[in-house]
Write a structure and sequence with these properties.
By secondary structure, this protein is α/β, with parallel strands linked by helices. The protein has a single domain, classed as Ribonuclease Z/Hydroxyacylglutathione hydrolase-like (Metallo-beta-lactamase, Chain A). The chain has a 6-stranded mixed beta sheet.
Length: 233
């Protein structure tokens, strides 16, 4: 699997581009703030055509560029319980954050909802761009937070340990940490359930591509992540 990762222009959000190979259709995952130019460069370099945009959740730092990336022809996929967030994710920001964004990017923050939105359900299997993607609903950070599981690994992987599959964990699981639950729609109890019932059952040889920060593995997180200690799947 061809997999390219690059950071958005704000909040350190990882944007992912996945494809079966160069010259094929691709999936764009979590197009955050200011990703249009680097994304266009990735698409041109590998001769890729977006078939769908997948959103791990509806927070602004993960969805800000979804409408320009989708254009009028590509659908955005989001869990049904975070669908409402695409109406206007700017509405949940405090004025100070909006002002900071406008100062950084030199323009007023605006929002337009994608023309085509597909609502996702837990354990749904998607066949898109020649890839199989399973939706794992893992609420806690938001009501509709999901992880995307694929039975493939990025090309050229040089990890020292054996790996068998990939999970894009959004803001559910990070290297050494988890997503915060104190924002609107967050729920600490739901996050604990998601960690116990959705994250912990993931096999050790799973590559975890997080919404922020470096990649990790389930083997490493099970052994070292303090938020997983004491939980029993």
């Amino acid at each position: 699997m061809l997999a390219v990762t690059f950071p958005a222009a704000a909040f350190g959000t990882n944007c992912y581009v996945l494809a079966a190979g160069a010259g094929e259709e691709c999936l764009v995952v979590d197009p955050g703030i200011g990703v249009q130019e680097p994304l266009a460069a990735v698409l041109a370099e590998h001769r890729l055509r977006p078939a769908a945009v997948l959103l791990t959740h509806g927070h602004l730092d993960h969805v800000y560029s979804v409408t320009p990336v989708c254009g009028g022809t590509t659908a955005a996929y989001v869990h049904a319980e975070d669908r409402y967030r695409l109406a206007d994710p700017l509405a949940s920001l405090d004025p100070g954050t909006v002002a900071m964004m406008e100062a950084q990017f030199g323009s007023r923050a605006t929002w337009r909802e994608p023309e085509q939105v597909v609502e996702l359900a837990d354990r749904e299997r998607l066949q898109l761009a020649g890839l199989t993607v399973e939706v794992l609903h893992a609420p806690g950070h938001t009501e509709g937070s999901v992880m995307f599981a694929l039975p493939d690994l990025p090309d050229g992987l040089t990890a020292q340990e054996e790996l068998e599959r990939t999970v894009l964990s959004g803001d559910v699981l990070f290297a050494g940490s988890i997503g915060r639950t104190d924002l609107p729609g967050g729920d600490a109890a739901a996050m604990r359930r998601s960690l116990r019932e959705v994250v912990l059952p993931l096999p050790d040889p799973t590559l975890v591509l997080a919404g922020h920060g470096p990649a990790t593995t389930m083997r490493r997180e099970r052994a070292t992540n303090p938020h997983l200690r004491g939980l029993v799947a």
